[in-house]
Amino acid sequence: xxxxxxxxxxxxxxxxxxxxxxxxxxxxxxxxxxxxxxxxxxxxxxxxxxxxxxxxxxxxxxxxxxxxxxxxxxxxxxxxxxxxxxxxxxxxxxxxxxxxxxxxxxxxxxxxxxxxxxxxxxxxxxxxxxxxxxxxxxxxxxxxxxxxxxxxxxxxxxxxxxxxxxxxxxxxxxxxxxxxxxxxxxxxxxxxxxxxxxxxxxxxxxxxxxxxxxxxxxxxxxxxxxxxxxxxxxxxxxxxxxxxxxxxxxxxxxxxxxxxxxxxxxxxxxxxxxxxxxxxxxxxxxxxxxxxxxxxxxxxxxxxxxxxxxxxxxxxxxxxxxxxxxxxxxx
Amino acid sequence: xxxxxxxxxxxxxxxxxxxxxxxxxxxxxxxxxxxxxxxxxxxxxxxxxxxxxxxxxxxxxxxxxxxxxxxxxxxxxxxxxxxxxxxxxxxxxxxxxxxxxxxxxxxxxxxxxxxxxxxxxxxxxxxxxxxxxxxxxxxxxxxxxxxxxxxxxxxxxxxxxxxxxxxxxxxxxxxxxxxxxxxxxxxxxxxxxxxxxxxxxxxxxxxxxxxxxxxxxxxxxxxxxxxxxxxxxxxxxxxxxxxxxxxxxxxxxxxxxxxxxxxxxxxxxxxxxxxxxxxxxxxxxxxxxxxxxxxxxxxxxxxxxxxxxxxxxxxxxxxxxxxxxxxxxxxxxxxxxxxxxxxxxxxxxxxxxxxxxxxxxxx
Lengths: 331, 363
Hints:
The complex is a heterodimer. Chain A has a domain at 3-182 and 212-235 and 290-303: Rossmann fold. Chain A is 41% helix and 18% strand. Chain A has helices at residues 13-24, 40-43, 61-72, 90-111, 148-166, 188-194, 213-225, 242-249, 258-270, 280-283, 293-299, 307-315, 326-330; strands spanning 3-8, 28-35, 49-53, 76-79, 115-121, 171-177, 180-181, 197-201, 207-208, 211-212, 230-234, 240-241, 252-256. In chain A, strands 3-2-1-4-5-6-11 form a 7-stranded parallel sheet, sandwiched between helices. In chain A, helix 1 crosses helix 7 (213-225) and helix 4 runs parallel beside helix 5 (148-166). Chain B is built from 18 helices and 9 strands. Chain B has a 7-stranded mixed sheet, sandwiched between helices. In chain B, strands 7-8 form a two-stranded antiparallel sheet. In chain B, helix 7 (122-139) crosses helix 8. Classes of the chains: A alpha/beta, B alpha/beta. Chain A binds chain B through residues 129-130, 132-134, 202-205, 207, 238-241, 243-244, 246-250, 252, 286-287, 306, 308, 322-326, 329-330, and chain B through 100-101, 103-105, 107-109, 111-115, 117-119, 121-123, 126, 193, 197-200, 202-203, 206-207, 211-212, 214-217, 220.
C-alpha cells in the first residue's frame, strides 16, 4: 500500500524534516507540500514531493484544499502550519493558526482523509501553580490568560478535538511537543536561550523539559507511520531546574521580582525591542512538564536524547564537555 | 621639519577619511595611522604633495609622480603587516570561549546536571545535608523510635501531624529515615502549595526532595516505590496557634486513604512532638499576607521582631515515633477507594491513632 501525505506548513522545521524522512521511505508514494513559499527541501532533489502554494489566511482556501486532497487522493494530512515564534502581527497569527486550522478541518470534513495529524505544543497546558509535576494528555489545556500565541494553539486543538468527535471517518492525532531545542531548529526557546543573559523570577526555579529536534522529527514520522489517534505528549528524557539549564548553557541569570519583570517584559514587547512575550515569564515561574508515557506505549516513541545532551547539542558542544558529572561531584 | 600647518592638518585628517571608494576598510584606517607616523618622521609626503599638488593621502600611489612609489608603498605595507595592530588583534583573540567555559563550570558548582523526575538534585541534597544533620542531632536532639516499621524497600505512606510555621517537621521526618533507618531511604515529603511556592524556600525544598502535594504526584511517587511523607492537616495544621498545640486538625479530605487503597501502599502513622515549641505560633496576621501571596504572616516570640533571624527555630526537644503499618488495601481491596464513607472512617481512624501516639509521647 502506498500512501499519499499532504503537509501544511511544509517550510517549518518539522515539516521540512518530515519531507526528508518521507522521501526516503518507500511506503510513501507522494508528498504534497502546502505552504506560501516553496520549502528548501524540495530543491534538494526531492522526487515524491510536489509544492502547491496555499495561503491558509485566504477566505476560500478550504475549498481549494478540499479539491486538492480529493484530486491527489491524500490519505494523511499533517497540519503543521503553526508559528514557532510569537509575532507582533497577532491578527495575522490568529488568522493563520486558529482560522487556518478551521479551513484545514473544513477541507478534511469534505475530503475525508483517513488521518489528520496536528502539531501542537505542551505550552498549551499552561504554567500554573496547581500543575502536577507531570501533565498527562487528559489534563485540561488552560493556555495562558493573555497570550494569543499560546491561546491560538489551544483553540486550534479544541477545534481538532471537536472535529474528531463529529467526523469518525478521520482519525485525529495531536502531537504536543515539549519545547524543541537543537542545533538547527529556530523557535521561541532557541531564541530565548541564545541571549547571553536571561531573567530569573526571583525565588522561583521550576523544572523545565525539552525535546531534541531530531527526536521531535522522528516522533512526527512515527505518528504518520503508526495508526494511532488522540493527543500525545512528545517529550525529551529528564527534566532540569531552570537555573541549572542557564548554568549549563553559561547564560547569566538576572533575578527579577515577577511584578517588575512582567512590566519590563511588557514594555520591551510593546516597543518591539524583545521578541520574547511577557507570557513566557509564567513558564519560568511554574512547572509545565508533560508526561510522555502514552507516546511510549502507543507510538513506540522514547526520547533518545537526555535533556543534558539536548542542551549541549544546542550549544554545539560534545557530550564530554558537560560541566559537571554526578559521580565526579559526589566522589 | 618646517611643514605648512595645513599640510599637517591634512596628514592628521587622513586617519579619518574613508578610502578612495568612499568605504571604510580596516586596512585603510590602520595604514593611515602608520602613514601619518612615517610622514612626520621623514617629511617626504610633504614634498610629494607639493610636487603633484594632490591632496589625497594616497597620492604616493600615483605613478606619474614617483616611479618608485608603488614599491615603497608595498614595503611600507609589509612593514605595517609585521607590526601587530592591537585593536584588531584584541578583538579577534578575546578569550571569550575560555571565560564562557569557566563561567559554566562556576555556575554549575553545587548543583547537579541530572535531577530526578521531581527535581531532587543529588549534589544540592549532599550540600544541605549538614544543616539537616545539625538540626536533627544537635539542635532538636531528635529521638526517633519505631523506624523499623518503615519497609526497607517498596512504597509506604508516612502520615504525620503538622506544626510549626515552617515545615521543619517534614525535614526532620525525612532526615530521621535517612539517618536512622538501616536502608537509609530517601523520604519524599509532600509540600503544600502555600510553602511550595514560597520564594527561595520552595525551590530549595524541591531540590532536597520535597514534592508539591497533589494526588497525581503522590500516585506517581508511590508507583515508583518511594516512601512518601504526607501531612494531611496541611496549612491548617501548620497554622494552628500555640494554645491549640498537639490538637490534630481535620485530615484533609482523606486523599491519602484513597491513595493507599488504590496503590496498596501501607499507611504508617507518625507522631512528631517538639515541633509546636520550635516556632510557637502566637498569632496569625492575615490582612497583610494576602497581598504577598502567603496564607498568613506568623507571629512567634521571635519572628517579626528579629527579622529573618526570627525564623530560626527554638531548640526544643523532639521525639518522632513511627507506628505500626496499616495495610488498608489488603483489608478492603483497591475498589474500596470509591467508598467515601469508608475513606472518611479510615481517615478518622488514622487521625485518632496519630493523636494517641502524640499524647503518649508527650506524657
